[in-house]
Structure formats: C-alpha cells, structure tokens
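task queued by scheduler; priority normal; single chain, no ligands, no partner chains; default sampling; output format set to structure tokens
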Amino acid sequence: MATPITSSIIISFLFCVSLFLLLCSSKNGYALGSGERKTMQSHFHTFQVDSLLPASVCSHSMKDKRKERAVSLKVVHKYGPCSHLRPEKASAPPTLTEILTRDQSRVNSIQSRLRQNSLEKDSSSNSKAATTIPAKSGIPIGSFNYIVTVGLGTPKKQLSLVFDTGSTFVWTQCKPCIVFCHKQKQPIFDPSHSTTYKNITCTSRQCSQLSSSTSTTPSCSTNTCVYGIGYLDGSTSQGFFASETLTLTPSDVFPNFLFGCGENNKGVFAGEAGLIGLGRSRLSLVSQISSKYGNYFSYCLPSTPSYTGSLTFGNGGRSSAGSSLQFTPLLSKSQDPTAYYVDIIGIKVGGKTLSISQSVFKTPGSVIDSGAVITRLPAAAYDALKTAFRQHMTQYRMAKPVSGFDTCYRVKKNTTLKIPSISFEFGGNIEVAIDYSGILIADSSNACLAFLGNSNSSDLVIFGNTQQKTLDVVYDVAGGKLGFGHRGCS
C-alpha cells in the first residue's frame, strides 16, 4: 500500500507529464485550411513559399458572401488565372521591382494630395478654359490590381472595371472613341445601342458635382457636360458625363446611374474597360446605390491571384455587434475628405507589442486603401517592425535588398518558412492579425517583408491591400466605423 508521501510524488509526476504533453500539443499547433500552413502557438506561421505564388489555374473562394439585403460581385486579380483580362499566352507575373515601382507611383499621388492641396490648385488653374488636359490628380491607373464585372446599358453590356477606395468617380470607355481608346478585352460600350443612355446637361446640379470627384472643373460641349480626369502616371480619361442603367445582378438594377463615358482615354491599362470609385463622394458607386444598400460595403481580397474574392454592398442583415467582426472608428480629414482614415496605435510581432510611440502614427494620420499594395509605415515604426521580425528569422539566409525591400530571404518554391505573426492595433481597442500571405511578398527566389518605411515623418501611414488579404474588410460609412473579420475568403 502506497504511503501518503509516495502518492503525493506519483500525483506530482502525473501532473508534470500532463502539463508537458499539453505544452507540446500547443507547440505543434493546429492546422488551418488546406494544410499549407500551421499556426504555432498563435504567434507563428509555417508554410511553403509556393503558397504565396500564383498558380496556373483559378480556384474559387470557399466563402460565399451573398446574403439577404446585400449584393456581392466576384473580385479577381488582373494578373491571375481567374481574370479574363490576362493575356492569352500566360506571361510571368510582375516582378517585385515592377510591383514596387507601380505601387510607389500610387503612394506618391496619395501623399501629394495632402501637401498643401497643391494639385487641387493646379487643376483649378489648368481647367478654366476647357477640359482639354486634365490635371494629374488621381491615382496612377497602372497601380490598380482588382477587377469586378458589371452590366451597363439596355440591353446590358458586361464591363470589367478596376475598383478602388482611393478614387471617387466611375467611368468606362465609350464609342465612338473620337480621339483615342486603349485596347480592352470586351467590346467598348456604345451608348448609341442603349435605350437608357442620357447625357447630362451643363446647367444641371449633377454637372456641378463633378469637380469634387475629378479635381477638374467640367467643360461644356453643345450643352453637354464634359468631364476630364488625369492620373499621376500620365493616364487620362475625357468624355461626356452621362446617366445609364447599371446592373450588378439581375435583381440589382439601378437606373439613372451617373458615370463618365470616355471617348479619349490614354495611359497604362491592362485590358480593363474603366474604373469604379468607392471613395467618399456623391458620385462614387457606394453613394449612388446607398438608397438600397446604405453607405455600407465590404470586400475580401484573396491570398494570391489564383483565388477569387468578393466585393459586397449592403450589410446582409448582419449586426455590427456580431462576434466575427471587430470595429474601429472611421475618421476623416479636411485635407482629403474622400479618403478613409483610421487610427493605428500599435504593432505586435510574435505576440509582443513593439515599443513605438502612438504619436508616430497620429502625427501624419493613417488611411486604409484597397489599391496600395504595400503598407507604408513611419520610419520609427518600420525600423522596430523589421528588427523584431529579423530576430525571429536568424535561421534563414538573408538576400540582398530587392528594390526598396530591405528584409529579404533567399528561398525556393519548396522552401518551408516559419515566420512570426504580425498584428495591428487600431483605435477602439481591437487587434487585427495579418494573414501569413500579407506578411511576406515573394517571387521564385526571394521572400521579402511586405512593409516599407516612409522617408518623411509627415508622410501618411497607408494600410495596403497585401496586409488586407483574406480579411473581411467592412466599411460602415454611415455608421462611421471600419470592421475586420478573419478568413473572409481563401
């Protein structure tokens, strides 16, 4: 018969063994998704590099965002196999250098918009005589990546348009292309074949709203309102301001939708027909369909170009108090009232909060942007982030900097990486974990930390689309808040 002392020793031993097994179980983690990745103790990700790279075939998201009181459009990456805009002969995806070059043009345009409103002053002076050379005030067209397809006209014609929260106007190419139209995959929209097309007159209230969305004063041609919009990469669109029937789905039809019917369009395009602006403006798509869906929309951007995502209008009957969503206040600034500002207050790496003063983020302000590829951080925040990240990556061989990316590692497609988790802390006491596909950006030989530091302390903080991958990003504009939900799509 065991003595009390012996029993105590046995119980203690069994407790230690149980605790050890529990810790080992936690350390080994649990599988997520298709097995390409594991989350280790919730603070590390293990995956193969090829899961960051586009595949040759299209895979549809496992999530279906269609709900009552909501309409959902399929989102595809224009360089991926899910896009019909992709060249017939599959070409190599953009290199890291090409991605960064295009993205930097976009970031420069966003930063410029805030510097003393200089571009607005230029656009006003350049457009007094006529809308012949639009001021270069918009986002570079070549930086757009995500496409949705809508119907326009009666009978409807399908058009693939890039969408962007940093833009506030909707336009598409139109025949007869009096000056120039770029090549697009689908037939160019011909208003003469639609029974519901109408030009907007110069004296109308709608025409007077144009300048706030295009940063260019409209001109007039035979009492027809003429719009013009220019972009910092030299792309331009000019044409008639008009109304038409917009069809999102067979049951979601919007008559008298205002848009630009462009007959002179030049620039860096990849077969898309035009652009859908989702920014804060009376002429954005969000505002124009708000009578049915409210100022409420959401999107999920896929983990790689090989998957589809979604763009949804309306809240689908879900409550903002739902446990699957976390909300932070949406802010606005007078310097740029069309942008979606948020309050970033901190960053965690591997579960540990970095020592970064909140003033580093508050001084310039922060925006969330669907078009900027790479998140831009204040220099102090980026330095702290990369230092902490590198400390967890000492087992991997660093590569030479690739373009502006200075934290890169030599990899092969079949390389297995274990990286620390990264999460952002926002106002409203919420923490948003970044998917592993949003931590690194990779090609066949390099994997780089997908963040960059700003060169000036006054430069805007930009939360880019790479860090938004697989998140359900919800814009409750009317309610003044931005929501995040995890695993909104594949």
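post-processing summary
- Residues 13-40, 116-138 have pLDDT under 50 and may be disordered.
- The chain has two domains: 66-311, 318-485.
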